[in-house]
């Protein structure tokens, strides 16, 4: 399936099948979660990143079912197709954004998602404590969502941010690498 | 048409939900009325043919999983990775099968008169399973032993779906 076809599916679904919610509500809800985590973990940002990833993972495992139910798309035939599906359909229908898929490695197992806009981070300014700028990945929940969602469709991936405009970088970029395809599980042997 | 039973298997090959509407297809009832003890099957090395008396629901689920799992793999070997089987029939029943890309398997056994249930199974996935089970934030993500799938909304809607829509 080509990238343009994926965009078309994404647009169509966004227009017809998706319940919309106020963007500020999303931004503020997510911001509150991150703020609370920073407080709970005493500004240990590594731990905050980890918790966000974990929360995302649990969301992703559910969200994939909703994604499949709404989109009705079948299995992707290769990882490039998966990337387009994530960027053009997944992000489109859940956040109304389409990050750019780029920086493929030659073995087609790693790509970057570059976010021109990020509804989770609207109005956000990282705390001025000298560490948050270097340690906190504010939108880290998205990495977990991808990890959880792809695991459910038999792909083990690693996803992490490599740059974020909130930190003063030029772009917000997430690196996604395919670790392996997960084999079907067999029923436990009967004794 | 008559729906005999319905099963959901998760990606860990576990039966996370099963429901039976009629005891057994008529030809089997005679056999199952014969008194047998549950323990007698443990001495059997192989599960007996469908309709044997002393089989538990649990055994049924395992048998059905084994069948659809093998059949699905065989179909994929012959017809390519994207191929999937939709239904098979015997002289007694029809088995309908739908698998999501997340490897959740929906299986329904009906009588021979029933039309294709593929769309119905898909509807159960989209409108009932995803809506009531997956989106219930307090139910666990995975369902070892069927925890979380046995919620009232899901069961009631399934009941309605099967009785109203399908019959």
From TrEMBL, chain A:
Pfam families named in the record: TRAPP
Gene Ontology cellular component terms for the protein in this record: endoplasmic reticulum; Golgi apparatus; TRAPP complex
Main localization, broad class: endoplasmic reticulum
InterPro entries: Bet3, NO_sig/Golgi_transp_ligand-bd, TRAPP_component
Signal peptide: none
Annotated transmembrane regions: none
Location in the cell: Endoplasmic reticulum; Golgi apparatus, cis-Golgi network
Keyword vocabulary terms for this entry: Endoplasmic reticulum, ER-Golgi transport, Golgi apparatus, Transport
Source species, domain of life: Eukaryota
Record-level GO BP terms: Golgi vesicle transport; macroautophagy
Protein family membership: Belongs to the TRAPP small subunits family. BET3 subfamily.
Name of the featured protein: Trafficking protein particle complex subunit BET3
Species in which this protein is naturally found: Aspergillus coremiiformis
UniProtKB/TrEMBL annotation, chain B:
Sequence segments annotated as region (Disordered): 27-52
SMART domains per UniProt: Sybindin
InterPro entries: Longin-like_dom_sf, TRAPPC
UniProt xrefs under SUPFAM superfamilies: SNARE-like (SSF64356)
One family name in Pfam for this protein: Sybindin
Keyword hit for Endoplasmic reticulum: yes
Main location: endoplasmic reticulum
Keyword Lyase: no
GO BP terms: endoplasmic reticulum to Golgi vesicle-mediated transport
Gene Ontology CC annotations of this record: endoplasmic reticulum; Golgi apparatus; TRAPP complex
Bias kind Low complexity: ranges: 32-45
Subcellular locations according to the entry: Endoplasmic reticulum; Golgi apparatus, cis-Golgi network
Keywords annotated in UniProt: Endoplasmic reticulum, ER-Golgi transport, Golgi apparatus, Transport
Oligomer status and interactors: Part of the multisubunit transport protein particle (TRAPP) complex.
Family note: Belongs to the TRAPP small subunits family. BET5 subfamily.
PANTHER family named among the record's database cross-references: TRAFFICKING PROTEIN PARTICLE COMPLEX SUBUNIT, TRAFFICKING PROTEIN PARTICLE COMPLEX SUBUNIT 1
Official protein name in the record: Trafficking protein particle complex subunit
Native source species: Aspergillus coremiiformis
């Amino acid at each position: 399936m080509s990238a343009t076809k994926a965009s078309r599916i994404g647009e169509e679904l966004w227009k017809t099948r998706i319940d919309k919610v106020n963007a500020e509500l999303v931004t503020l809800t997510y911001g509150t979660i991150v703020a609370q985590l920073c407080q709970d973990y005493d500004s240990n940002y590594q731990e905050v990143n980890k918790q966000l990833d974990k929360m995302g993972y649990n969301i992703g495992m559910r969200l994939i079912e909703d994604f499949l139910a709404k989109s009705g798309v079948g299995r992707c035939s290769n990882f490039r197709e998966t990337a387009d599906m994530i960027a053009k359909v997944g992000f489109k229908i859940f956040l109304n954004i389409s990050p750019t898929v780029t920086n493929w490695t030659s073995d087609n197992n790693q790509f970057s998602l570059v976010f021109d806009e990020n509804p989770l981070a609207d109005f956000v300014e990282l705390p001025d404590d000298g560490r948050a700028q270097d340690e906190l990945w504010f939108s880290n929940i998205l990495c977990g969502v991808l990890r959880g969602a792809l695991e459910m469709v038999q792909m083990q991936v690693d996803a992490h941010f490599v740059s974020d405009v909130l930190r003063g970088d030029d772009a917000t970029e997430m690196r996604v690498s395919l670790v392996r395809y997960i084999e079907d599980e067999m029923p436990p042997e009967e004794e | 048409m008559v729906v005999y039973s319905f099963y959901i298997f998760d990606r860990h090959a576990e039966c996370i939900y099963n429901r039976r509407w009629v005891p057994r297809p008529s030809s089997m009832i005679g056999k199952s009325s014969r008194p047998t003890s549950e323990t007698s099957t443990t001495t059997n090395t192989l599960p007996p043919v469908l309709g044997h008396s002393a089989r538990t629901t649990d055994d049924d689920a395992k048998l059905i999983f084994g069948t659809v799992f093998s059949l699905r793999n065989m179909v994929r070997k012959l017809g390519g990775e994207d191929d999937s089987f939709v239904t098979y029939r015997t002289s007694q029943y029809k088995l309908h099968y739908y698998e999501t890309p997340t490897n959740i398997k929906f299986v329904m056994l009906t009588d021979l008169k029933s039309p294709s249930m593929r769309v119905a199974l898909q509807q159960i996935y989209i409108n009932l399973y995803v809506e009531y089970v997956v989106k219930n934030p307090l139910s666990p993500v995975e369902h070892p032993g069927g925890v979380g799938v046995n919620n009232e909304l899901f069961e009631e809607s399934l009941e309605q779906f099967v009785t109203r829509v399908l019959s």
